[in-house]
Amino acid sequence: MTIKSTSRTAAVLASLLMPAMALSGGAFAQTPANPAPTSPAPAAPTQPKAQAAKPASRADRIEKHIADMHAQLHITPAQQAEWDQFAQVMRENASGMSDTMEKRRTGFGSMNAADNMESYAQIAEQHAQNMQKLATTFKVLYGSMSDEQKKNADMVFRSRGPVQGHARKQQ
Predict the structure, then answer these.
(1) Cβ(29)–Cβ(22) under 8 Å?
(2) How far is 108 from 88, CA to CA, in rounded Å?
(3) Domain coordinates of the chain in residue numbers?
(4) Nearest to 65 by CA among 25, 99, 100, 15
(5) CA-to-CA distance for 134 and 156, rounded, in angstroms?
(6) Alpha-carbon distance 13 to 125, whole Å?
(7) Count of CB atoms within 10 A of residue 68's CB?
């Protein structure tokens, strides 16, 4: 694999993990580079804010992301076993990152600069390990896809754009 294709693969796989990480603490939050056009904003809610719907839990947001991706990739019943493994890695990665971010958050007030740097290094290391697990399971899923599904998957991940904060424009 070339350096260029490795970088592109890493960016694509990072786009898979980033929503889970954003849901687990926000330190790696990302906004889409090319957000999908939306319909006009709905009318303002008529109920008071106190009665507004409670935001979805992290687990609910992860499950929604997994379900949306399942639909976007047109996973077939024959691919369900590979998909289930991939989805489970996404869940485990999100849970583990959530725990790591919580540990950092609770200790942050008492960290000195060296502790802060070490804590961030642990997050980066866990992110790299999570991406490796995700890449491995995605490769199996991708290998089970038809040529048309692969073409669609390539388009889906390209449309997410590069992971913000990882590839900045030179000014």
Answers:
(1) yes
(2) 30
(3) 58-161
(4) 15
(5) 17
(6) 16
(7) 11
In whole angstroms, give the CA distance from residue 10 to residue 101: 22
pTM (2 d.p.) = 0.63
The reported pLDDT for the residue numbered 57 is 86
Question: 73-110 pLDDT, tens per residue?
Answer: 999 999 999 999 999 999 999 999 989 899 889 998 99
Which string of b and e fits 93-118 if b means at least 16 CB within 10 Å?
bbebbbebbeebeeeeeeeeeeeeee
**Alpha-carbon distance 30 to 159, whole Å?**
14
Question: What single DSSP character describes residue 30?
Answer: -
Q: For residues 166 and 63, what is the distance between their CA atoms, to the nearest angstrom?
A: 26
